[in-house]
Amino acid sequence: MNIYFCGSIRGGRQDMEIYQKIAKKLQNYGQVLSHDDISEKGVEAVPGGDEAVYDREMEWLAQSDVVVAEVTQPSFGVGYEIGQAMALKKRILCLFRPSSGKVLSAMIQRAKGKLGSSIFQVQDYEEEEVEVVLENYFGEFTKN
Fold it and tell me: Name one GO molecular function term (predicted).
């Protein structure tokens, strides 16, 4: 299974450690299509700049069976990727940490009710429980 993982990189560097933990846990369920190393340098370190990043990430989306998006930190890029994943009819899991004090976008929050939970899910989580959230999601995913 190919899993595309995304999170706010340019605007969410304070969550890099969380992203790294999620990406590592996702490796238990398949090949993770994401930045080779989600690092402090972010996508600015990619040869070819923004065009290369766009092309690479759209290719990963096309190859993916499921998209996991960490959506706590608002991001135009992640929103765009979710929209593209929806257009490609990919299964999508959005992860949100209420303890961050942020409010989840209504467009993400309400999409789950419009698209059906088998295609689009939003899961609240705390950092220490993300492994259980992923186990539950991928356990259900493999049943279907």
Answer: 5-hydroxymethyl-dUMP N-hydrolase activity
